[in-house]
Design goal:
- There is one protein chain.
- The chain has two helices and five strands; from the N terminus they run E-H-E-E-E-E-H.
- The protein has about 100 residues and is an alpha+beta fold.
- It has one domain.
- Strands 1-2-3-4-5 form a five-stranded antiparallel β-sheet, sandwiched between helices.
- The radius of gyration is 13 Å and the shape is globular.
- The model has no long low-confidence stretch (mean pLDDT about 95).
Length: about 100
């Protein structure tokens, strides 16, 4: 996936240690229940909002991305959690989510 410039409060995964990246990828796997829109999908962390437990993931090998608000419970959540928004690509994320977050931060 192409490299993007993230603006505070969002930070590229490149700003985090390898163990943090692994933890974010493992936690989303732990939390996604059967029936969730991301169940069974391979997710790759791209960025994290540093003031919340919100993480941006690439969905498989596609350009689609998911914004996931992790609970950090370490267990499978009930349907409806973790709260997730799926977008067509990182460009849509930057235009619709990140810019708004920067304005409100």
């Amino acid at each position: 996936m192409e490299k993007y410039k993230f603006i505070e409060p969002w930070y590229s995964i490149d700003e985090y240690s390898a163990s943090n990246k692994t933890a974010m990828e493992q936690e989303v796997k732990n939390e996604i229940p059967k029936g969730h829109a991301l169940y069974g999908e391979e997710l790759h962390v791209i960025a994290r909002r540093d003031d919340e437990d919100t993480v941006l993931y690439q969905i498989g090998d596609s350009v689609r991305v998911a914004i996931v608000h992790l609970t950090w419970s370490g267990k499978t959540e009930s349907i409806g959690f973790p709260v997730t928004t799926i977008l067509k690509d990182v460009g849509e994320f930057i235009e619709t989510v990140m810019k708004q977050d920067v304005e409100n931060h």
